[in-house]
Design a protein that fits this description.
The chain is of the alpha/beta class. The chain folds into 3 domains: 8-101 and 289-324, Rossmann fold (3-Layer(aba) Sandwich); 102-280, NAD(P)-binding Rossmann-like Domain (Rossmann fold); 397-483, Alpha-Beta Plaits. Helix content is 31%, strand content 23%. The chain has 17 helices and 21 strands. The protein has a 7-stranded parallel sheet. A 5-stranded parallel sheet has the order 2-1-3-4-5. A hairpin with a 7-residue loop joins strand 19 and strand 20. The chain starts with 7 loop residues before the first strand and ends with a strand. It binds nicotinamide-adenine-dinucleotide and 3-phosphoglyceric acid (3PG). Residues 54-56, 77-79, 102, 283, 285-287 line the site of 3-phosphoglyceric acid (3PG). Its EC number is 1.1.1.95. It comes from Xiphophorus maculatus. Residues 9-316 form the D-isomer specific 2-hydroxyacid dehydrogenase catalytic domain. Belongs to the D-isomer specific 2-hydroxyacid dehydrogenase family.
Length: 484
């Protein structure tokens, strides 16, 4: 991938000092400013190329749109629900996280809450501190032989399962993505939620917060559970509906809850926190020295790798399509087509959402090809069809064919590229070179197709993009440019 220039980074939360040190060792100026109000952040962010946050900074569309230079939002941790990823993507800002740095810590806190719920440890501690010695009130129940339902069998769900199996718990679970045979290999039997609810003595949720997981446990689903079921939420506030939980605790349908996260943090409404059968923490899942060291270090290294054009690790959405050859090629073709059509500056990160907004339908399909790794993309815009095929060679995405023109050599999709469609003419290159020179642009490479019949596509590597593509229009039938 092409390097991205990051000279200044704002760290807006308490992130491990290794993060700052690594960024500074790599020539990036770092400012740390914590607990800023929204208006302060909006005023501050204008000057920075990068922002590093944890979960408390709300990186809303207002903040992103105020950030004229912003290229990267780094989340030192897992959840990016505090970042408006759509707004960032539309503005061409990469959002990246460090999803595995705090997995063990979050899993261990979940296990601690499960154990505390079974033996009323926090309540007993409080009672002791008040001078009591109450052995009857805090009668517990063993975890051994009980059923633990795990909703969300990703990184944390898996670690919780294997730890709680050591206590003799039977672990069952549900995840729409993790295949049942995979979770079975670490001892979790998968089933539908309808089958899961009535079997569980304990339920723990480990999904992201998204429309399909909001209120997974609600009045209706609590009613399907065993009376007295105990629940843990160490994932995100709202996956267990807070009002339904309170009702279930009051009716005894829920026997206890361990909560590390809340819809509003800190919660203004303290009804759950103050309930005698609730034990809670102020979002401490990732608050260990080890997790913070990993996340702080990882996010800094990921930013440095990106700056050096080495790697794009941890990118949340842009990364998903940029990591694949098909996604890269689709984005590159779209940037070429739309760069001068859309009012907003198009780049490889935001182009797919800009295209969607412009009503351009992009269909990516995969077909089995004899040439492994070959990828073909067709973009239909304004009734014209543009087809490209490419692959990744030595880690570099290359273009092999553009709308019927098969290039003699693969064209590296890096740097500033000019695509020209014209009828084959030996005078084309000198004429184009003359126009480019008069615009102060040098030719760095030239790729011609193998077959010169009819209108064909050429690719010209240039020192910089042209201010106005119209200067080439008298010489060519079609022209597009992009910077990668
Ligand atoms: N309390 C904390 O401090 C803390 C720390 C780390 C992570 N977290 C949170 O924990 C959660 C899990 O993190 P992770 O790293 O395991 O994520 P992950 O992406 O590895 O796993 C999430 C799993 O949820 C599954 N899922 C998605 N929709 C689902 C649904 N409707 N029903 C069931 N499963 C569904 C996904 O398929 C995935 O396997 C996230 O919300 C994350 O933000 C909290
Ligand atoms: O999603 C996460 O990584 C956790 O919720 C931790 O958030 P924190 O970095 O604010 O502790």
């Amino acid at each position: 991938m092409a390097p991205i220039c990051i000279k200044t980074v704002l760290i807006s939360e308490s992130v491990d000092p290794r993060c700052r040190a690594i960024l500074e060792e790599n020539g990036i100026r770092v400012t740390e400013k914590q607990s800023m109000k929204k208006e302060e952040l909006i005023a501050e962010i204008k000057d920075y190329d990068g922002l590093v946050v944890r979960s408390a900074t709300k990186v809303t569309a207002d903040v992103i749109n105020a950030a004229d230079n912003l290229k990267i939002i780094g989340r030192a941790g897992t959840g990016v629900d505090n970042v408006d990823v759509d707004a960032a993507t539309n503005k061409g800002v990469i959002v990246m996280n460090t999803p595995s740095g705090n997995t063990i810590s979050a899993a261990e806190l979940t296990c601690a809450l499960l154990m505390s719920l079974s033996r009323n440890v926090p309540q007993a501690v409080m009672s002791m501190k008040q001078g009591n010695w109450d052995r009857k009130k805090f009668m517990g129940a063993e975890l051994y032989g009980k059923v633990l339902g795990i909703v969300g069998l990703g990184r944390i769900g898996k670690e919780v399962a294997t730890r709680m199996q050591a206590f003799g718990m039977r672990t069952i679970g549900y995840d729409p993505i993790t295949p049942p045979e995979v979770s079975a290999s670490w001892g979790v039997e998968q089933m539908s939620l309808e089958q899961l609810w009535p079997q569980c003595d304990y339920i723990t949720v480990h999904t992201p917060l998204m429309p399909s997981t909001v209120g997974l446990l609600n009045d209706e689903t609590f009613a399907k559970c065993k009376k007295g079921v105990k629940v843990v939420n160490c994932a995100r506030g709202g996956i267990i509906d807070e009002e339904a939980l309170l009702r279930a605790l009051e009716s005894g349908q829920c026997g206890g809850a361990g909560l590390d996260v809340f819809i509003e943090e800190p919660p203004k409404n303290r009804s759950l926190v103050n309930h005698p059968n609730v034990i809670s923490c102020p979002h401490l899942g990732a608050s260990t020295t080890e997790a913070q060291a990993r996340c702080g270090e990882d996010i800094a290294l990921q930013i440095v790798d990106m700056v050096n054009g080495k790697n794009l690790v941890g990118a949340v959405r842009s990364g998903d399509f940029m990591k694949s050859c098909g996604g890269y090629l689709t984005s590159a073709v779209l940037v070429g087509l739309l760069k001068h059509e859309s009012g907003c500056s198009a780049n490889l990160i935001n182009i797919q959402s800009l295209a969607k907004e412009s009503g351009i339908a992009v269909n990516q399909s995969h077909c089995v090809s004899e040439e492994a790794g070959l990828c073909k993309v067709e973009v239909v815009a304004d009734g014209h069809s543009y087809k490209a095929s490419g692959s990744v060679q030595g880690g570099v995405p290359v273009l092999l064919e553009l709308s019927g023109s098969v290039f003699r050599q693969p064209v590296s999709l890096t740097g500033n590229l000019l695509f020209l469609q014209a009828s084959a003419d030996p005078q084309l290159l000198p004429s184009v070179a003359g126009v480019l020179a008069s615009e102060g642009v040098q030719i760095e490479s030239f790729s011609a197709p193998a077959d010169h019949t009819g209108d064909v596509w050429y690719c010209v590597g240039v020192s910089s993009l042209l201010q106005d593509l119209n200067v080439l229009k008298p010489l060519v039938k079609n022209v597009a440019q992009l910077s990668i």
